[in-house]
Amino acid sequence: MSSGYSSLEEDAEDFFFTARTSFFRRAPQGKPRSGQQDVEKEKETHSYLSKEEIKEKVHKYNLAVTDKLKMTLNSNGIYTGFIKVQMELCRSPQTSPNSGKLSPSSNGCMNTLHISSTNTVGEVIEALLKKFLVTESPAKFALYKRCHREDQVYACKLSDREHPLYLRLVAGPRTDTLSFVLREHEIGEWEAFSLPELQNFLRILDKEEDEQLQNLRGRYAAYRHKLEEALREVWKPD
């Protein structure tokens, strides 16, 4: 039985991913990802730090690592490394039939992902859901960063465009300083559902409304019939 911890050796193809693979949704046909797009994404990722600052931080990060999960800085300025994400879901999400996978709703289930500095929060969420063959929309989930400061714990929801590995690099390797948590999206009751799902809900409500109206009409028809019978008995001539 699985312990709930996804090792790096399991399902390597859908466990490891970088921004240059086709792991996530592809560009529309006829509009392939160009090298210029990659450069722009790279610039967006590294707008926080200069190349020298990144090099220095990666070096310091690796010196502080105690679990051998070090970062690697490539010649193009993109760096790769590992993040650990804890699953804290209130309910068991819908999974693909016959998946044979452990439900990520197991409290405390920790997953280690090897990612690139260009990977976004949205891509990390998709990777986790794909890992467990979860069929629900990624919009129903959110990635949080958990920070520890002066004996206080703070949780902050990350936007889909933020880069988890950059946050990991800046915070250092200690998970008691910064950790990542996957939770159900804390948004409005209906906002997490897709348009087809909402339309299906309306169809169900319409059907239930019709059934209730038919039942109500039947009840009143029965009452009317009994009342008419009672009136006929009262006014029946002797």
Automatic annotation (TrEMBL):
Its main location: cytoplasm. GO terms for cellular component: cytoplasm; microtubule. It is found in: Cytoplasm, Cytoskeleton. Residues 187-234 form the SARAH domain. The keyword Cytoplasm applies. GO terms for biological process: signal transduction. It comes from the Eukaryota. The keyword Cytoplasm applies. Signal peptide: none annotated. InterPro entries: RA_dom, RASSF1-6, SARAH_dom, Ubiquitin-like_domsf. Residues 79-187 form the Ras-associating domain. Residues 27-47 are annotated as: Disordered. Residues 38-47 have a biased composition (Basic and acidic residues). PROSITE patterns: RA, SARAH. This is Ras association domain-containing protein 3. Keywords: Acetylation, Cytoplasm, Cytoskeleton, Microtubule.
